[in-house]
Amino acid sequence: MFVRNNPVLHRELMINLRTDRSFLMLLLFQMVLAGVIYFAWPMETRLDLSEKSQANRELVDFFFLGQFVIAALLAPSFAAGSICGEKERLTYEMLLASPLSTAAVTWGKWMASVTHLLLMMVASLPIVMLCMPLGGVSPLEVMGGYFGMTVCLLVFSMISLTCSSIFSRTSSALVTSYIVILPLLLLAAAFWFGFRNLATFRLQFVLGLLPVLAIPLCLGLFHFVANRMLYPPDIGSEGKEVLDQEIEKQEVVGLYIDRNAWPDRWFAPAKRSTLMEDHINPVYDKEMRSEILSQGTLMMRVLIQVGFVLSVLLLPTLYFATEYAFIFPCYIVLFNILLGPVFSAGAITSERERQTLDLLLTTTLSPWTIVLGKMMAGFRVSTVLTLLMAWPLVLGIVLNFQQFYMVLPSVGGFVVLILLTCVSTTVLGMFCSSVCRKTSHAIVLTYSLVLLLYFAPPAMEFFFRFFLPSSTTPAVVEFASLFSPFSAAARLPAVNNHLNQLTIPGRGPIMATEMAGYYWHFGGYVLVTVVGLAIVMGVLIARFNRRWLVSFGEG
User: Fold this and answer.
1) Which DSSP category does 455 fall into?
2) What is the DSSP letter of 45?
3) Which of 8, 295, 462, 515 is the most buried (most CB within 10 A)?
4) Which residue has the higher pLDDT, 64 or 421?
């Protein structure tokens, strides 16, 4: 029953693999990988297959890297809701009361969450085999790459499952999983790409040292999850929907959020003890003072602590490598991308799940008041927390002001990028919340849109510059870069503090007269973002004016 006849594993596999979403995801995954091979395929009519092809090695490395990044980003979406979903559906206690051991339940949830990812990897094997006749890569290296990806995905899924066992909401588990996994993902991607010319050492590390590090970690987390389910501290769904702040203050370990202290009251104001004034938006007041932190502050405390640690680690780039100073605002943007949808994507779906949405829509409040109240609550929390992570950016610029003085418009561009991202994630989350029935679906849809708009353009730019340097970048890629804050930040002029000259990261030195062209590109990003947000807001308000569209979640 532990492995072969595990009912939890069978049920989860039927749910995950027999849905339209799984087939669509597999199709899109294969199309993206096939497109990479198609565009990077050598254009020569004759190839000397007797010599090792460096270009083919780089193509296979990029293929594995892209496949690994996509699969790793998908891992939390399958695992983070495994146990949280049982809690939200109020079936967690029934699962614990079954005759299954907690180890069997944990194993079933873990294997079910990683099986779909492994299926996607196996399905990509015929595509990578097309590159084998070009030379430069041995079959052992290909199998080593798949082995390394499998081990990493097992670790990422186990981390997400652990977060799912700790938190009571899928959104909290999902975001915390990404916060923990992303540094590991970046480290693994940097190792794979950085040692691309040392294939033997990389293969030895993947086959030898990586399992030694991964197996104890997975076993430790597995034991933690199974033991937590054996002695669950969060059973009893009645009376658990709202946490008492005083009890949490007494039991919390580490950072504590005090709603009456500064700066905590900026993003978590104290509960109201007096009558509400006439000019206050009741939806906004209820969301800020009672709703957003009703499930406790554990997720927020984890995000603040991890975010501060990563901010300090990135601080040296602002002083010793000012040419790559754009990395720091990109990190802040990434932090908001992870954080923003949590407080906005559940704004409407949470009402629908509690069956209070129809009551809200039938009040005398106008659609604009409801939308603005929900949106401003999520925007305030995510923006304040994001700006708290930006203090090292201000510190680094002040300490090295002599270098940043030459590119003050770029410094202003960093601020605009951060603020526009805060608005964008809030608006996109609200829109996805209005078209989805469940909060988990709204969050996944928001993250999918963000990945498409923000991460796909720089990935395409990197692909064309690295594999097709002689050809011009297609116009569609140049236009797509206007949607991405990462592309906009990377095009802002900077100063090389070693050579003391103007430069564009990854593009080389520039003249002072060329700066205007790059700033025009940044202006195009601002214009496209503002226009896009206005269109999304218009559609959202129109849906609320026709209230039945929002009530039934149909378009």
Assistant:
1) I
2) S
3) 8
4) 421
Give the domain range for residue 365.
Answer: 245-552
Give long-range contacts, CB 8 A cutoff, 24+ apart: 362-369.
365/282, 365/283, 367/541, 367/544, 367/545, 367/547, 368/541, 368/544, 369/281, 369/283
Residues 67 and 184 in one domain: yes
- Would you state the structure tokens that stand for residue 333, as one six-digit string? 């943007």
Where does a domain end: 230, 259, 282?
A: 230
Tens-digit pLDDT profile for residues 494-522 = 877 666 677 777 666 777 666 777 788 88
Same domain flag for 177 and 307 = no
Point out the domain boundary residue: 202, 230, 258.
230
Confidence band of 407 (pLDDT split at 50, 70, 90): confident
Q: Does 263 sit behind a cis peptide bond, omega within 30 degrees of 0 on the bond before it?
A: yes
Regarding whether 99 and 214 lie in a shared domain, the answer is yes
Q: Which two tokens stand for residue 1?
A: 């029953």
- Residue 463 is assigned to a structural domain of this protein: yes
Q: For residues 28 and 409, give the distance between their C-alpha atoms in angstroms, rounded to a whole number.
A: 39
**What pLDDT is recorded for position 250?**
56
Task: Compute the average pLDDT of residues 197-210.
Answer: 83
Residues 106, 16 share a domain: yes
Same domain, yes or no: 69 and 125: yes
Please determine, for residue 237, whether its predicted confidence score (pLDDT) is greater than 50: no
Task: Give the number of domains in the chain.
Answer: 2
Q: What are the strands of the beta sheet with 501-504, ordered from one edge?
A: 494-496, 501-504, 508-509
In the predicted structure, residue 230 carries a pLDDT above the cut 80: yes
**48: pLDDT strictly greater than 60:** no
Q: Is the pLDDT of residue 267 over 90?
A: no
